[in-house]
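Annex B. Sample input.
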Amino acid sequence: MAAATEDRDTARRSGNIIPIDVAAATTIYNGTLVANDASGNAVPASDAAGLQVQGTATEQADNATGVAGDIQVEVTREPVLMDNSVTNALDKSHVGTDCYVEDDQTVSSSGGTNSIVAGRVLEVTEDGVWIDPSRA
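Annex B, continued. Sample output.
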């Protein structure tokens, strides 16, 4: 490929919302953390080997009876408020560091068995932990 020598009509879309094919026999709930599995399909985030957090679901996606790719889920990569772990709680000393997936709605200061990064800690409040999942 050569460098451009004229204007280009480049397709664009917001980088904050991305569609991802949902894995077979999977339900993803609105507002929960979503990860890609080894095949690139969306699954609820968990401390399972090989997952990569993509963001949070903007809608429910019920593919419980479908095969991979039958439906997609829209995922936002904007900062979100997640629950703070009871056993491995985050506090203000964790701001600016990575936090880890405990389950699809809870983040932790500890990496668990597989150390799946949920995102970067932005703020810790009494309501939970604000994270930036685009930093996962």
